[in-house]
Amino acid sequence: MKNETELKEIVKQKYAEIALQDKETNQSSCCGSGCCSDEVYNIMSEDYEHLEGYNPDADLGLGCGLPTQFAKIKNGDVVIDLGSGAGNDAFVARYEAGATGKVIGIDFTPAMIDKARSNAELRGLNNVEFRLGDIEKMPVTSHVADVIVSNCVLNLVPNKDGVFREIFRVLKPGGHFSISDIVLVGNLPANIQSAAEMYAGCVSGAIQKQTYLELIQTNGFKNLTIQKEKVIVIPDDILSNYLSVEEITAFKNSGTGILSITVFAEKPLSERECGCGTDCCN
Questions:
Q1: Of residues 148, 133, 135, 150, the one with CA closest to residue 64
Q2: How many domains in the chain?
Q3: Which CATH number does the domain housing residue 220 bear?
Q4: Are 177 and 261 in contact (CB under 8 A)?
Q5: Predicted TM-score of the model (pTM)
């Protein structure tokens, strides 16, 4: 397996390419991974069109849930969108936060930041901004966000524990997050696990569901709730790029599950509610 720096560079290069593609092209692959499919599969993304604030120009079809729908954003909230891409979730969050709120999108791909800023400028949204940066070291001060959202991004980050520490740092006491992400139950075949394309496609970078939930709890969050869960099925024509016919059959019969989950959790209001090792114990 490649090291963290190499994995980040793979993701950055792939998503720079995706920023220049349309939604239909992205949806014909595994979360934009580039492993071409014979048909257009809407494998992971969900329909945003019924949500207020939706901007089709910002929707590249790269998500695996609707975190903004579950995020309990209130008028006037400061919202941070991790891995904001072309701005899709940020613009929906901006509608919920209203004219008195503020939305900050963070992405480490310059082409995505350019696309999102252009989308915001075209619509005159002066309380939405996009910052170039790594979500493992967010370019924002501590205790600034009421709500954090993210859509199918943490699975692309090698150091997921570091991201949850940063989320804890950046949230105000009593703040919360709603994150949609890909997790596993069981083990992926070795050829999928080691494929760079499948990493950039949101699959082989996923970790076990139980481990994911434990990372949230050990970083001090409370009231952990799974708001939505669905099974992700990868089409055979994509799997055949990595597995033989026999291996595909074995994989399907293995009991391994690829899941999209939307998870909610809160940062405690007081130090007494925090676990050791978290920001608010300092």
A1: 150
A2: 1
A3: 3.40.50.150
A4: no
A5: 0.85
